[in-house]
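subagent[fold] <- orchestrator: predict structure for attached chain, return tokens only, no commentary.
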Amino acid sequence: RNELVRLKVDLPTDYDQARWRVLEDGQEVASQVEQIEGKTFLWVAANLSKGQKRSYVLEKAAPKQFPPRVTVRREGDAWVLDSGLTAVRVPAAMNGGAHPPPVQALRLPDGKWVGQGHWRTDRRPLSFEAKVVGEGPLFGKVRLEYCFEGTAGIEAVPAFYRAEVSLPPDRRHVVIEEAYEMSRGSYWEFDA
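subagent[fold] -> orchestrator:
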């Protein structure tokens, strides 16, 4: 139910989500565009039973506005991704010299915010950037990038941590995709 599906389609060079709509078996459905490493991908949320197939068509016409299944909003120094069922708070800015953890808190279905993230590292933060890369109507996603002092790894690259924190619709979980190069014993943790 509402399973996110990335469509295998070569989008037209003039693709503009405001001028194209997606039809699923002849009916217009909500879609979302995502840029990944310079490529444009198109997502839909499909409801599929075992063995069921769906057919998708791009049609050049103004799409109707679907209500967002996940919202992304700024609250102080944080971005909040909210599906109505679950929410996650991630940093939007560095607070002074402190480096905020990738996940600051989670909101449970009962509305209660729980948990707290912490960095466990002796490395001094040099910079931090947060960028909203998915803002509905199907999912919310924020890309986080941390640069730390010094080098790390076999190739002695500048120490870094990158994460994409996303919230799919109708799910009770958050997806965190990470890449990093730091020294042993450097990590972040989330206490619920």
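orchestrator: received. Logging for downstream: DSSP finds no helices and 17 strands in the chain. The first strand starts at residue 3 and ends at 7.
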